[in-house]
UniProtKB/TrEMBL annotation:
It comes from Karstenula rhodostoma CBS 690.94. This is RNB-domain-containing protein. One of its GO terms (cellular component) is P-body. GO terms for molecular function: 3'-5'-RNA exonuclease activity; RNA binding. Residues 544-908 form the RNB domain. Signal peptide: none annotated. GO terms for biological process: mRNA catabolic process. It comes from the Eukaryota. InterPro entries: NA-bd_OB-fold, OB_CYT4_C, RNase_II/R, RNR_Ribonuclease, SH3_CYT4, WH_CYT4. It holds the Pfam family OB_cyt-4. SUPFAM superfamilies: Nucleic acid-binding proteins.
């Protein structure tokens, strides 16, 4: 028997007895400590791994220790008839449970009661269901938008999803519950994990019975802040086993399908890709092509879809997806073979170049290694880039992530502002063009996201050029060779303009700025044929009303190219407090069906895309302007409502017609007609010339007859009544504080910019810079977060909302499936909308007379998230029971769909003399409507994410040009800026910087942490700009002092 020496042992005491004597001494000490409550808490904090020592200890060391470190009975389990498992179970019952601190995030955990805890801390290896939340704790800026998402955003308990992270194999998990913005899942690995539903790229609805998930809920965290799946308490294995088994079966079946069809799945790209054009396919279409064996009746199972997804994810660059919409659409963009070959070729060249450079460092006294062809191409490009960068810096300086304005003609800037000319330089070789295309894919299109090997190749090129060693981000030094520096390279070698807006190269926008898809190319060809021989025929010709002498007012800016809508008004005879309001809308859908080539183009674009420098119309300009844009003798669809002075709709109708008398006025002219004058001028910032002569081209004020002036006054009165009624229904009017009004001019007499696509054939230099005008708030615009009243600028808005509410109610009454838009409350919100109003909103208004910004933000959250659905749902933000967008059919495809549905219903009612209803739709032997309920749902799933992408692009483009203006004013003094600004805090974040806006300028800003204390939402701080990140379109500021803080009166 092994014996140990110690100060208290005798030769006749064995190791086991020594351990027990020692344990008695320690137990006495522990009892004394526990009296103070210290030892148990200390013990509970010890991670389980800390109880395991992996160091190797010699017998000599053991012999010199005072006491054994393990229970000797574990070496002789037979003495006490306990197995190792039984010993571990006993230890687990005593020490393995979570402490009070850990359980604070698990309010439903059984350990809060008298139930004996059987939980232990678990530690796993690195899996794809680990730390899925990560930085997602930071709310994405895109979530601040009030743009819609579809009803499919919400997962249901029992839906099986795929959790994935870069560099890890995805794992299956089942959705259990939602806690505020965070979704909770239980994975096939037997652990719960957290994510946002927007991050889930694939789901199998209803795969697991929700009843099986109920036992798991008590072991799920009820709070998400600071809780990590890897190191926290987990669901007991026996309770999670039934769910885990189902997930395992699904995983194993998908793996079996993959192994069986590996040759086909691994060669999917060569089977599906086109040589030169992007190809769009859904996951089901891909599965049928690869696994269906030509059987048109074959339908892929969830396991088959998972197997196909695995194959596609292994070729992530070749099969592009939009991560934000993948779960809803399941659409893959298959890159053309020419693009893939280019990337693979240049990637190999970079590898050869790095190997050659490495060989040079190890051959000091030997013969220099010969460069391969690929290494030589990179070497030559590096030398050319160094020369071109030196040339560029003679006329344009460079800072963090951007190239400065042109200084080669500084003396003539005021005489000839704007972009003056372009000139051409050296030709790029074939190899240069491939390298440039490789860098463009990285910088402009962001095609290499989550692909570190390709990112490293691009960074290697920048490092080899050696001209950007001093470029370092003050926020993130590790981004020294990132995409922002790559953009500088493309600008300085004359490929992209020095003021290039990267947003328009987003592949998900599907603009001509990126390679055309095969479908779009065919559509453009057919549209050109239609332009030469238009085949438009009015399907509503026999149902049109002639509006004759009725004056229709089209209120829009002078530069508007597409006039979608106009309004007219008539008093109700004998009822001075009532009006008939008519919203006349362009009517292209009466002239072509959903299968027409223009419909295909509109569906592809989804919406007209507006950026400050240019626009991309949904419908070709020749069609909109020559045939459908509002004007005299043009066809319209009219949404009419009879309203009273309380804003109540008493009667409504929809009819087609032709307008004859049109008056066009601008919003500014409308304000003058109605004697509404601004109390002050808005803040204005102009760079590139100091003035914008385009503004001087205002026309003389049109002369209106007295009855027309009275019509405008009546429209204003009716708009106030409509707002009064909506406000009574709970509507809110929001002020956009962080979106400045920006205009861009190529020259003083030319608004917008001519598109200059990247020059990959030869070097292009641009002389001069665009003029940028930024318009901020007027002095009274900072009065509050919500608007309580309206002015003349809101007249058109109220009329358009009336038309959309009228159309929504009309379709809802008839059971017509359209793209209804509304709001839904979060199922996990602490207070319902009604409770929030009663317990928070009304008491604060009664006490203070206004809302704090924090309360206003919480109220917006209580109002719910905007969604789209094929059935009517209330829109709490707008105060509408049913709402569909119908006023912009020249600019929004969903409006066209609504018009097609309404027109088909009107033709049915005119033909049968009966009102259409759900029963008639269901019993009809042939479809009455162009879109069935199922087709409408599919359209919503496709259109909603596209609308969100476009909305985000419009916002980001606006921010880009606004930051460009501030950058040129701040770094190059092209316009005066105040030394300090007043920043209003919108969202607090002590780690990444709190978000706010510059009062007066409507510019978003990131404010660094203050040494004087934490920020609170609604604070007003004096701050000064520290630096501007042009690549990310961010302004960073540092605080100086607190000006004011919101709080109870």
């Amino acid at each position: 028997m092994i014996r140990l020496k110690s100060s208290w042992q005798t030769p006749n005491i064995c190791w086991q007895c020594q351990w027990r004597l020692s344990n008695q001494r320690r137990s006495f000490t522990q009892r004394a400590l526990r009296k103070d409550g210290l030892a148990p808490k200390l013990a509970s904090r010890l991670p389980r791994r800390a109880l395991h020592d992996t160091r190797r200890t010699s017998q000599a060391v053991l012999a010199s220790s005072v006491e054994p470190s393990i229970d000797p009975t574990l070496l002789h389990p037979g003495r006490h008839k306990l197995s190792t498992r039984q010993h571990l179970e006993q230890w687990n019952k005593t020490f393995g449970g979570p402490d009070d601190l850990e359980l604070s995030a698990f309010e439903k955990h059984p350990a809060h009661g008298d139930i004996q805890n059987t939980m232990a801390k678990l530690s796993f290896g690195s899996k794809a269901d680990e730390d899925v939340e990560g930085d997602e704790q930071i709310r994405d800026d895109e979530n601040d938008d009030d743009e819609l998402v579809t009803i499919g955003l919400f997962l249901s308990p029992g839906d099986v999803v795929e959790l994935s992270q870069p560099g890890r194999e995805p794992v299956l998990a089942v959705f259990v519950q939602q806690i505020e913005l965070t979704s909770q899942f239980y994975s096939v690995n037997g652990r719960w994990t957290l994510s946002r539903q927007g991050r889930i790229s694939f789901a199998v609805p209803g795969a697991i019975n929700p009843a099986l998930l109920e036992p798991l809920v008590p072991y799920m965290p009820t709070a998400t802040e600071g809780v990590q799946p890897k190191h926290s308490v987990q669901v007991p294995r026996d309770i999670g086993a039934p769910v885990q088994e189902l997930l395992s079966e699904l995983t194993e079946e998908s793996e079996r399908i993959y192994r069986t069809n590996a040759p086909v799945l691994d060669s999917a790209y060569s089977t599906l890709a086109d040589a030169t054009r992007t190809r769009m396919m859904t996951l089901s279409q891909i599965a049928k092509t690869l696994l269906g064996k030509g059987d048109p009746t074959w339908s892929p199972s969830p396991s088959a879809l998972l197997a196909v997804r695995k194959a596609l994810k292994h070729n992530e660059f070749r099969f592009r997806t939009d991560a934000n919409t993948q779960r809803l659409t399941n659409i893959f963009a298959i890159r053309p073979k020419v693009d893939v070959e280019m990337v693979e070729t240049v990637h190999e060249w970079v590898r050869e170049y790095r190997e050659h450079e490495a060989a040079l460092t190890s051959t000091y006294d030997k013969k220099q290694p010969t460069r391969s062809a690929g290494a030589r191409y990179i070497h030559l490009f590096v030398n050319k880039a160094q020369r071109l960068i030196a040339e560029s810096r003679q006329s344009r300086g460079s800072k963090l992530g951007f190239v400065g304005p042109d200084r080669s003609h500084e003396s003539s800037t005021q005489d000839s502002p704007g972009i003056k000319t372009t000139f051409w330089g050296d030709d790029f070789t074939t190899a240069d063009r491939q390298i440039i295309s490789f860098l463009q894919a990285w910088v402009l299109m962001d095609q290499f996201a989550n692909m570190p090997n390709l990112h490293a190749a691009c960074a290697s090129i920048l490092q080899a050029i050696g001209c950007y060693d001093l470029v370092q981000s003050p926020v993130n030094p590790l981004s020294a060779m990132g995409r922002s520096v790559g953009q500088m390279l493309l600008q300085e070698i004359g490929v992209t303009t020095p003021f290039e807006n990267r947003v328009i190269y987003n592949e998900n926008l599907m603009l001509p700025t990126v390679r055309l898809s095969r479908n779009l190319e065919l559509l453009n060809t057919k549209a050109e044929i239609t332009r030469r021989n238009p085949d438009f025929k009015d399907a509503m010709a026999d149902m049109r009303r002639d509006w004759g002498a009725t004056t229709v007012y089209c209120i829009d800016s002078l530069g508007a190219h597409e006039i979608d809508d106009g309004v007219s008004i008539e008093r109700v005879h004998g009822k001075p407090s009532e009006y008939w309001l008519h919203v006349h809308v362009a009517n292209p859908t009466a002239f072509f069906s959903k299968t027409h080539v223009l419909s295909g183009l509109a569906a592809h674009m989804t919406e007209t895309i507006y950026t400050p420098e240019r626009s991309w119309p949904m419908l070709p300009s020749w069609a909109s302007q020559n045939y459908f844009s509002l004007g005299s003798n043009r066809a319209v669809i009219t949404f009419s409502a009879r309203v009273d002075d309380s804003g109540n709709t008493l009667e409504s109708k929809i009819q087609h017609g032709i307008i004859r008398k049109v008056v066009s006025i601008t919003p500014e002219e409308l304000a003058i007609y109605l004697d509404e004058h601004s109390p002050g001028e808005a803040k204005r910032l102009v760079v590139g010339g100091g003035h914008v002569p385009v503004d001087k081209k205002s026309r003389p004020l049109p002369k209106l007859a007295p009855e027309q002036l009275q019509n405008l006054r009546d429209l204003y009165a009716a708009a106030r009544s409509l707002w009064k009624g909506r406000k009574a229904a709970g509507a809110v009017r929001l002020y956009s504080r962080d979106k400045a009004d920006v205009s861009v001019y190529q020259k003083p007499d030319a608004g917008g910019l001519t598109w200059m696509p990247p020059s990959v054939e030869r070097v292009r230099r641009v002389v001069g810079d665009p003029i940028i005008e930024l318009r901020g708030d007027k002095p009274h615009d900072n009065a509050g977060y919500f608007g309580e009243t309206i002015d003349t600028s809101n007249i058109v808005e109220e009329m358009m909302l009336l038309a959309c509410r009228t159309a929504g109610s009309w379709c809802a009454e008839r059971g017509i499936p359209v793209m209804f838009r509304g709001t839904v409350e979060s199922p996990t919100a602490p207070l319902s909308l009604k409770e929030f109003r009663e317990k928070v909103l009304y008491p604060e208004l009664e006490k203070n007379g206004h809302l704090t910004m924090l309360t206003a933000q919480n109220y917006l959250g209580a109002l719910g998230r905007s969604i789209a659905h094929s059935s009517p749902i209330p829109h709490h933000v707008l105060g509408a029971k049913a709402y569909i967008k119908v006023t912009s059919p020249l600019r929004r495809f969903s409006d066209m769909i609504a018009h097609w549905q309404i027109e088909a219903a009107l033709r049915y009612e005119a033909r049968t003399g009966q009102k259409l209803d759900a029963r008639a739709l269901a019993d009809a032997p042939r479809p009455i409507l162009p879109f069935s309920h199922r087709q409408m749902q599919e359209s919503i799933i496709t259109l909603s994410p596209r609308e969100r992408v476009i909305s985000k692009a419009n916002k980001e483009s606006n921010a880009f040009w606004a930051v460009q203006a501030f950058m040129r004013a701040f770094y190059y003094q092209e316009a005066p800026l105040p030394d300090t600004f007043t920043v209003r805090i919108q969202r607090t974040d002590p780690i990444h910087g709190s978000k706010g806006w510059f009062e007066g300028y409507r510019m978003s800003v990131i404010l660094a942490s203050s040494a004087d204390g934490d920020y609170e939402v609604g604070d007003r701080w004096e701050a000064k700009i520290s630096h501007i990140d042009s690549f990310k379109s961010q302004i960073h500021a540092v605080p100086i002092r607190l000006i004011s803080r919101e709080g109870p009166a």
